[in-house]
Amino acid sequence: MLTRIEVDGFKNLLGLAIDFGPFTCIAGENGTGKSNVFDAIQFLSLLVDRSLIEAAQEVRGIHGERLGDPRDLFWNGHSWSEPRMRFAAEMIVPGEVEDDFGRAAKATITFLRYELVIGYAAPSGLEKVGRLVLLEENLRHIKLGDAPAHLRFPHSTGKFRNAVLHGKRSGTAFISTIVEDGQPIVSIHQDGGSRGQPKRAAASRAPATVVSTVTSNDDPTILAARREMQSWRRLALEPSALRTADRYVDDRMMDVNGRHLAAALFRVANRAGSDPEAAYARVAGRLADLAGINVRDLRIDQDDVRELLTIQLVESSGLTLPARSLSEGTLRFLALCVLLEDPSVTGLICMEEPENGIHPANMDAMVHLVRDLAVDPQATPGEDNPFRQVVINTHSPAIVQLVDPGDLLFADTAVRKGPDGSTAHVLRLRPMADTWRARGHSAVTRADILPYLTTHPGAQLSLGDTA
């Protein structure tokens, strides 16, 4: 669970700090940089599996495309003489994980803070494009006694916090960085603390982060941090992927674009200890929350001749509709219903504009569904309460009116001085007044956002001034 992120120097994010709860809705006009928050989270997740340059190439460039130029990730990157991106992520990591060889690993402590600084080296020799440089990487524990100050969202101490936070750490950081002769040196420290010599490596020529290199249970807490960041996913459900039938040999985990939806539903319904008919009925019942959808039954057609799995919806009239005949909004809603039924899907889910393709009459059903995907912090995480976190962004006033005020962050731009001394429009996120997020932050009131709430659909939205 990502409880806090700090970003400085990434795209238009300067000095940005966000405290997350189980569910967060970022709302505001298009063009403010809301999606850059998702880009920053995605970048950190990619960095635990890929090299620095490969991760950069997977993230949207300044024009919304994957351009492959690492300078596009830096604030004003093409003109800044010494680009720097700084990230910090506070997270609750799994207590037990498996390494890449299937061996169990138990984290020393499950509340961690990860810090990363990345620079840019200009091209030299035959290089035409420069490269990203690792300047600093740290992984430290957060004392469990300090947890109430860090986990600011409402939650049960006994059922939630004590269930997910455990362990202790008496030694130094798990990963630390020092500078020797002007060069950063990154060290991995053993989980036992001061025992044993740290493993040191020069950072300046490192092609990847240290976390990405930890694959065995020799460093279980770093591995747990890696597994947590690997679980951060960005859903981008595509109608063509959602409508595609699955072969018997296909993966049975739904992809971030919605591919393998049929196989995922088949797996969830037939998992050990589950009643398939009851599982299909629960998904059908949730789908029936949509106005205009008359669902009598939902099933998976198993074509043994072509070896295909296909979702079929049976209407109250008896008409059977395959997935390819369903609307985009219905398919997106169905995909989220399947995720809701799947306890194996944990971690952070980022989703942009969940209202896309949804009829205005069904906004309430969609908001309740995405909210229900997130863990209930008043109960113990488990099979019936998966440890799942959801962050959405939207420009829909209807969504804003339906979301709990404590879950909202309002996005606009503010003029601030950039790292090179020039002024720039940067993303600003402000919570609603009198909510848990408002403590120590500039907040907005309902009067401040009244123009936003009353703007007709399709108009350019505004959340206030940019001072």
Radius of gyration: 23 Å
Strand order of the largest sheet: 12-17-18-3-19-20
**Can you give the mean pLDDT?**
90
What share of the residues lie within helices?
A: 10-25%
Number of E strands: 20
Low-pLDDT regions: 457-467
Structural domain tally? 2
* Named CATH topology of the largest domain: Rossmann fold
The CATH architecture of the largest domain would be 3-Layer(aba) Sandwich
Q: Number of DSSP helices?
A: 12
Q: What's the CATH class of the largest domain, please? A: Alpha Beta
Protein name: Putative ATPase
GO molecular function, one term: ATP binding
Organism: Actinophytocola algeriensis
Keywords: DNA damage, SOS response
Q: How would you summarize this macromolecular structure in one to three sentences?
A:
Helix content is 22%, strand content 27%. The chain has helices at 34-46, 52-58, 147-150, 157-164, 220-230, 239-242, 261-269, 276-287, 328-341, 363-373, 397-402, 450-454; strands spanning 2-8, 16-19, 23-28, 84-92, 96-98, 104-106, 111-121, 131-141, 175-180, 183-188, 199-202, 233-235, 246-247, 295-303, 308-315, 320-322, 347-352, 388-394, 408-417, 423-431.
Supply the key terms:
467 residues, alpha+beta, Rossmann fold, 2 domains, six-stranded mixed beta sheet, five-stranded antiparallel beta sheet, 12 helices, 20 strands, 22% helix, globular, disordered C terminus
